[in-house]
Design goal:
Length: about 525
C-alpha cells in the first residue's frame, strides 16, 4: 500500500498557478463575459466591455511576479527539467505584446459594441468580448508552450475565435467573405501543421521541443525523409500564420472586410501568434535543420517585404484606396522585416530573435495607433479611404500629428526614432549572420516603403478638398426647391478611443526618446 501510494504521488504534478495566471485570467474573464451577457440588460452591455478591459489589465499585472523569467510548470515527473509550460523572458515579452495589444483593441472596440445613432446595432457585445478574450488567452498561452501538442492547441484556441470575430458583423457581405477566406487559409495552415507535427513525432518519439531537438540528429536513416518532411510541413504551416509570401493572399481582403478593431487585432496579435510559433519550432525544436530553414526563411523574408511594399506602392495612388487595405499590405511588408532575424538565428544562434521581438513591440504600438486614428476618421467617413484623411490637420490637429508620427515610425524616419532603430537592429542581424544580400534587399524595400508612408502623411496636411462656407447654427434654406443646409457638428471623441490614441502616442514618443526600453531585447538571450 505504501509503495502504491508513493508511486501515485510521483505521478501528481504541482501546478505553478502564478506562472499560468496571465492566460488563465484572460480565459476566466472570457467565460464571465459570456455568462453575464445572459443577464445584463441591453442598456448596460457597456459593462461587459469594461469587464473585459479590467480582465486584460489584471492579466498584464500578473506578469510582474514573473519578471525574473525562471518559472516552469507541467513538467515530466521523470525529468523535471522538461516542461510543457515555461515563463522565460521570451514568453513574458510576447505575452506583454499580446495582452497589451488586446487591451488597446478592446478600447477601440468599446464603442463598436454599442447601438448606433442611426438605430442599427453594433457588434453583439457578449459574443464579441468572449471571442476576443478567448483568442487572446490562446495567444498568451502559445509563447509559453514547450511541447508540440500544447503549441497546436494554443494555436487553435487563438485562431478559431478569430474566424468568428472577422465575420461578426451580421448581414455584411464583405465581412462574411473575409471570414470565409480567413477560415479556409487558416484551416489549410492547421492541416499542414498537424501533418508536420505528426511526422516529427513519428520520427523522434517526442513531443517536447527540447526532446525533439535532441532526437532529430539521431533519427535512423530510414526515418530521415519522414523527419525532413515533418520539419518542412510544420514550418510551412506557421508561414501561413505569419502571412509570409506566398501565403499572404488572405490578408488584404480579411483586414478590409473585418470590423476595424478586429483588423487591428489581427495585424498585431494575430501576427505575433504566427511568429511566436515559428520561432519556437525553428529555434528550439529544429536547430539540427538550421541549414535548411535558415536559407528558406531568408528567401521568404525577401519575397514578403518586396511583395508587400510593391503592392502598397502600386495601390497608394488610387483615390478610392482603403486605409485599412493599405495598412494590410504594410503589415505584409513588415512581416518580411520580422522574418529577417529569425532567418539570421540559423547562423548566429537563438539570440538573434531578440531583434524580432524588439521590432514586433515597436510595430504593435505604432500600428495600433494608426488603427486608432483610422477608427476616429471612420466615425465621419465610413469608407475609410486615404482621400478621407485630407485636411485632417485642419480638423483634428492632434490626431493628424499622431498619425504622421506613427507613419514615420513605420517608415523608419526621424522623428520616429524607434522605427529607425528597430530597422537598424534587424539590418544588423542580417549583416552579422552573413546575409549581406538580404540586408541589401531590405535597404531597397525600406526606400520603397517611404513612398506610400510619406504620401499618406502629406495628405494629412493638405487643404481640405472642398472648403464650405459656415452655415448658421440651426439651418439655412437657400432658396425654394433647394435642400436645407445644416452646419456640420464636430462629434467629441469617445473616451475609450481617445484613451487608445493617447496610450499609443505616449508609448511611441517615449520609445523614440528612450529606445533602449525595447532594443535591449535585441541583445538579450530570451530563452
Amino acid at each position: 500500500m505504501t509503495a502504491a501510494t508513493t508511486a501515485s504521488a510521483e505521478l501528481v504534478q504541482s501546478v505553478d498557478w502564478a506562472a499560468i495566471a496571465p492566460p488563465v485570467i484572460t480565459a476566466v474573464v472570457a467565460l464571465v463575459a459570456l455568462v453575464a451577457d445572459l443577464f445584463v440588460p441591453p442598456a448596460r452591455r457597456r459593462l461587459l466591455g469594461w469587464t473585459a478591459i479590467a480582465g486584460l489589465a489584471a492579466a498584464l499585472l500578473a506578469l510582474l511576479p514573473l519578471r525574473a523569467g525562471d518559472r516552469s510548470t507541467f513538467c515530466l515527473t521523470t525529468d523535471p527539467a522538461t516542461c510543457s509550460y515555461t515563463a522565460d523572458h521570451f514568453t513574458l515579452a510576447v505575452q506583454f505584446l499580446v495582452l497589451g495589444g488586446a487591451l488597446l483593441t478592446a478600447l477601440l472596440a468599446l464603442t463598436e459594441t454599442e447601438p448606433r445613432r442611426d438605430g442599427s446595432t453594433g457588434l453583439p457585445a457578449g459574443e464579441f468580448w468572449f471571442l476576443l478574450l478567448s483568442s487572446t488567452a490562446g495567444a498568451a498561452l502559445l509563447p509559453a508552450s514547450r511541447d508540440l501538442a500544447t503549441l497546436v492547441v494554443a494555436l487553435e484556441v487563438a485562431s478559431l475565435p478569430a474566424f468568428a470575430l472577422v465575420g461578426l458583423r451580421r448581414g455584411d457581405r464583405l465581412s462574411g467573405e473575409a471570414a470565409l477566406k480567413f477560415f479556409l487559409s487558416s484551416v489549410t495552415a492547421t492541416a499542414v501543421t498537424l501533418l508536420g507535427v505528426s511526422f516529427v513525432y513519428a520520427a523522434t518519439g517526442s513531443l517536447h521541443l527540447t526532446g525533439v531537438a535532441e532526437a532529430l540528429p539521431r533519427v535512423p536513416g530510414q526515418l530521415g525523409t519522414l523527419a525532413t518532411a515533418g520539419v518542412a510541413l510544420t514550418l510551412v504551416g506557421f508561414a501561413f500564420k505569419t502571412a509570409a509570401v506566398p501565403f499572404h493572399f488572405w490578408v488584404p481582403d480579411t483586414y478590409a472586410g473585418a470590423p476595424l478593431p478586429v483588423a487591428a487585432y489581427l495585424s498585431v496579435v494575430g501576427k505575433a501568434v504566427g511568429f511566436t510559433g515559428l520561432i519556437l519550432v525553428a529555434v528550439i525544436a529544429f536547430p539540427a535543420y538550421a541549414d535548411v530553414w535558415g536559407p528558406a526563411l531568408a528567401v521568404l523574408a525577401a519575397l514578403t517585404m518586396t511583395a508587400g511594399n510593391a503592392a502598397a506602392l502600386r495601390q497608394s495612388a488610387a483615390r478610392a484606396l482603403s486605409a485599412v487595405r493599405l495598412l494590410a499590405w504594410s503589415s505584409v511588408a513588415q512581416a518580411g522585416y520580422l522574418l529577417v532575424p529569425v532567418a539570421a538565428a540559423a547562423y548566429t544562434g537563438a539570440a538573434a530573435v531578440g531583434a524580432t521581438i524588439a521590432y514586433a513591440l515597436m510595430y504593435a504600438v505604432v500600428n495600433l495607433g494608426a488603427f486608432a486614428v483610422v477608427a476616429l476618421v471612420a466615425r465621419t467617413h465610413p469608407a475609410k479611404r486615404i482621400a478621407d484623411f485630407r485636411g485632417l490637420y485642419a480638423d483634428r490637429p492632434a490626431a493628424a500629428l499622431a498619425l504622421a508620427f506613427f507613419l514615420l515610425c513605420l517608415a523608419g524616419l526621424p522623428p520616429g526614432i524607434i522605427g529607425l532603430f528597430a530597422k537598424v537592429t534587424v539590418f544588423s542581424a542580417a549583416v552579422d549572420a552573413g546575409l549581406g544580400w538580404l540586408a541589401a534587399i531590405m535597404a531597397v524595400n525600406v526606400v520603397l516603403g517611404l513612398s506610400y508612408y510619406l504620401r499618406w502623411t502629406a495628405v494629412l496636411f493638405r487643404a481640405p478638398a472642398r472648403a464650405e462656407a459656415p452655415v448658421p447654427a440651426a439651418a439655412a434654406t437657400v432658396s425654394a426647391g433647394t435642400a436645407t443646409a445644416i452646419a456640420p457638428v464636430r462629434e467629441p471623441v469617445p473616451l475609450p478611443l481617445a484613451a487608445a490614441l493617447a496610450l499609443t502616442t505616449v508609448a511611441a514618443v517615449a520609445l523614440s526618446g528612450y529606445p533602449q526600453l525595447i532594443l535591449t531585447f535585441a541583445a538579450r538571450n530570451l530563452f
